[in-house]
Amino acid sequence: MTGTEVLLPLRIPELGPYLGRIVSGTGRMPEGLHLDSVRLHLATRIFEATGEARRLAARENRRAAVEAIGRRAWLAAWDEAVTSVGSLLMERVRAQLDAEARAVRLSRRRRRRIQPNAAAARAAAARLGSAGAGLVTAVDDLERRALHAVVATGLEARAMAAWQDALRLAGRRLEAAWLALEDEAKRELGRWQQQADSVATWRRPLWPVLVVGAGATAGALWLGLILGGYLPPPDWLATLWSEVVQ
C-alpha cells in the first residue's frame, strides 16, 4: 500500500476561536434577560462533542468520530439553547404582565386572560428558532462532507480539508445564529412590552359607578317628592308606612 492510499489522520480543528462571542460574551444582553448561562452551556455542548470526536478518532473509530461532531450534535445544542431562551423569555413576560395587572388591580380572571397561552409561546419559540437558518445550511454541508473525510486517503487530502473547513464554518454560523437569537429575543420582548404598557394604562370603567349613582339619585328624588306631597305614594309604600306608624 502506497502512502497515498493510507487513510489520513482524522484531526478535528480547534473550534473555540470560531465560536467567537459565544465563548467570549457579546456584551449586549437583551434587557431583563440573563442569557449568559445559556450561551456558556451552548459552547460547552460543542466542546464536549469535539472532545468526544477526538477520543473516538484516537481509537480509529472514524465514522463515530465524525458523527459525534456532526449535524445532529450541532442542531441538538442549538435547539436546546433556543428552548432555554424561549423559557426564560416567557417567564419574564409572564412576571411583567402579572406585575402590571396587579398594579392596576385587574381581577384574577383578567390576569389569566392577558398571559401568553401555549400557542403564543410556540409562535415565539418559532421566531427565536428562525435565527438558526444559516446554521442549518452550514451543518447540512458538513454532513455531506463527513463521509468523504472518513475514507479520505492521501489522494483525497482536499476532502479532509473541506470537512475541517466545514467544521470551522459551522462554528462561525453558530456564533452568527446566537447573535441573531439575542436580537430576536429583544424584538420579542418589544412585542410583549406593548401589551404590558397597555395593561399599565388600564383604568377601571366608570359606567357602573355612574349607573348606580344615577339610580340612587333618581330614587332619592322620587322619595322626596312623595314625602313632600308632590306625588301620591304607591300602594305598597302607603301600606308599609301605615304598618310602621301603627
Describe how the helices and strands are arranged.
Blueprint: H1 16-19, H2 21-24, H3 36-58, H4 62-68, H5 71-103, H6 108-114, H7 118-129, H8 133-150, H9 157-200, H10 207-227, H11 235-245
Helix pairs in contact: 3-4, 3-5, 4-8, 5-7, 5-9, 7-9, 8-9
Reading the helices and strands in chain order gives HHHHHHHHHHH
Spans of 5+ residues with little confidence (pLDDT < 50)?
A: 205-210
- Portion of residues within helices: over 70%
**What best-fitting shape do the alpha-carbon axes yield?**
rod-shaped
User: What share of residues are in beta strands?
Assistant: under 5%
Structural class category: mainly alpha
For the terminal residues, how far apart are their CA atoms? 129 Å
What value does the Rg take, in angstroms? 34 Å
Count of distinct strands: 0
What average pLDDT do the residues reach?
Answer: 82
The largest pleated sheet is described as: none
Tell me what you see in this structure.
The chain has 246 residues and is an all-alpha fold. It has eleven helices and no strands. It has helices at residues 16-19, 21-24, 36-58, 62-68, 71-103, 108-114, 118-129, 133-150, 157-200, 207-227, 235-245. Helix 7 (118-129) runs antiparallel to helix 9 (157-200). The longest helix has 44 residues, at 157-200. The protein starts with 15 loop residues before the first helix and ends with a helix.
